[in-house]
Amino acid sequence: MMGPSHALSGAAAWLSGSLALEHLDLFHQTPLQLAVGTAMCAGGALLPDMDLSGKVTTNQGGATVAHTFGVVSLFWAECLEKISLGVYNLTRRGGDPRRHNGHRTFTHTLIFNIALGAGTIALCARFGKWAVVGVLFVTFAMALRGLFETWAKRAGWIVVTLAAAAAAWGVHQTLPGGRGYPALGVAIGVGGIVHLLGDLLTDRGCPLFWPIPIKKRKLWHCVGVPDALAVKVGGKVEVLALRTTFAAIAIIAGAVLLAPDVMRGLGMDA
Fold this sequence. Notes:
270 residues; mainly alpha; 9 helices
């Protein structure tokens, strides 16, 4: 799927999941925490595509997320694409085809995205609020790029960067010290896994279970829906049907979650 679809799916997943946990009385979030988690999950849902680089010097091509910070993030994407290709080449078996590009390989596995979430939790636990503000900055910028693609393209990466920096610093100022904030890592990990589930709907799928050898002589077996049910990337089903569905889920879940706080603010609670 394309960047905006992935970002919307991440937002919808966090809000609907939060609604379910709230209903079961397992996990409560304040409106600010809910907004931060939604933004981080939306940003995390773009991260796997950081392995799709473009033309670094001219700021062209590449995935939506690769343009978040202009040529800087395009360079990151170029590096990650080469790393992913290197992992593929080092571990491929005889049945795995030769590749000249690392897109939809290492970063499109469960193990990578789970490790990314766990690593974020460990980073924030070790370095506290200063690590948190860095994580918030990067993911907020990616979320802006994905959720508001048209505005982000028109505004440019500098404006997106400044907006993300201001939002990250503002949230940072409200956070109490001495905590690890594990929900941030969970949001990023969940976003990445939601990305993989979205790519399973396309005709290319992704190597979800690497390095588990699902097929003989193949370690990088891409799994997905049957071709007859596959969604065309950028097609009408994705752009119109899936994005509308994701947006509706996010809006409805968010409205239900925020309704009690809004009513209390208006003095309408029982």
